[in-house]
Amino acid sequence: MAFMTFHNVGISGIAAAVPKNTIDNLKYTEHFDKVSVKEIVEKTGIKFRRFAPDGMCASDMCYAAANCLLDNLKIDRETIDLLIFVSQTPDYRMPATSIILQDRLGLSKSTAAFDINLGCSGFVYGLSVVFSMMQSGGFRNALLLDGETRSRVYHPKDRKTAFLFGDGGTAALIECNKKYGCSYFSLNSDGSKQSLIKMEAGGYRKPSSIDTLKERILDEFGNISTDEHGYMNGLDVFNFVLQEIPNNVTSLLSYAGESICSVDFFLFHQANIFMNDYLTRKIKIPAFKVPNCIEKFGNTSSVSIQLTIVSQLEEIANQPQKIFMCGFGVGMSWASCILESPGFFVNPLIELN
């Protein structure tokens, strides 16, 4: 288990943008009967999701969030030295979307920019990279942009995934300042479980072809997908989370010298309400310390922790507090961090047409 400690680096602001287009899961019945849909919604706790319209990419939502954040905080764009874009739904295979965003946001050509291809653990992993680079010196301000259009990854005829995922984009402004206390990170991976959540084709090991785009029946329940849509083994993912995450949470708390009582909020990846409630009870965290936004936005992969902050903690994020963040999923990959924050700015949620 990899642990890291950083000093004097922290988040000064967060913004999030989502499509205005809202999907009511109870009415998402084109391919399924109403009884089955109602059961799925009750089990997952996901009532609504946001779907990006044609032509809108993850980068568009990140751009809107970053642009608004920089303007509202009155940040000189010449002082942004680092931009990292976290996503598994980039604009293109090449070039990197981060470099496109550097130009689009009007940042200096001296800005370092690169992409990170990670799913549900991506925000915490991204924070660890930014914190590490910031603490090494030479950087004034950094933007960590995180966006996904997960609605396009999973097939609408596969009931295992069709009701889970939504779209969004976020921006976090990170700075070096002595007002920030210590932060602690734990980063983990297990590639032996790569098949639990996977898109088989469309990459370079199994390139796109007529065959990879053909619909096929997945199982005895009649679920339909293609090799170029994501697949998820929900039961094994659930077992993975219960096996790895409680130990990861308690280990990082011990490493940081903290306890459940000393942490103000625990922000978990928004997978589904049943899984997160079970996880919370297993670790014995009081429910009031575990905000969630799964009902409104669904599973937005690496965007979900930030969406929880923007939608649930906007009024109190500017107060001093200790926050525990934990992302887990595709890979399999999981990462946690504890941030000692003097408070930070949270931009009101942005909705895009």
Key features of this structure:
353 residues; seven-stranded mixed sheet; five-stranded mixed sheet; globular
Multimer state? single chain
**Count of helical regions:** 8
Helix percent band: 25-40%
Q: Ranges with pLDDT <50 over ≥5 residues? A: none
Quote the beta fraction. Answer: 25-35%
- Structural class comes to alpha/beta
Distance between the termini: 43 Å
Broad shape: globular
Largest sheet: 7 strands, mixed
Q: Can you write the helix and strand succession as a string?
A: EEEHEHEHEHEEEEEEEHEHHHEEEE
Mean pLDDT: 96
- What is the gyration radius calculated from CA atoms? 19 Å
| Overall number of strands | 18
Notes on the protein architecture:
This protein has 353 residues and is of the alpha/beta class. Helix content is 27%, strand content 27%. Strand 5 (80-86), helix 3 and strand 6 (112-116) form a beta-alpha-beta unit. Helix 5 (234-256) runs parallel beside helix 6 (273-283).
Topology record:
Elements: E1 2-7, E2 9-19, E3 22-24, H1 34-44, E4 48-50, H2 58-72, E5 80-86, H3 97-104, E6 112-116, H4 122-135, E7 141-149, E8 167-176, E9 182-189, E10 197-198, E11 216-217, E12 224-225, E13 231-232, H5 234-256, E14 265-268, H6 273-283, H7 294-297, H8 304-312, E15 321-329, E16 333-341, E17 345-346, E18 350-352
Parallel strand pairs: 2-17, 2-18, 5-6, 5-7, 14-15
Antiparallel strand pairs: 1-9, 2-8, 3-4, 7-8, 9-16, 10-13, 11-12, 15-16
Helix pairs in contact: 5-6
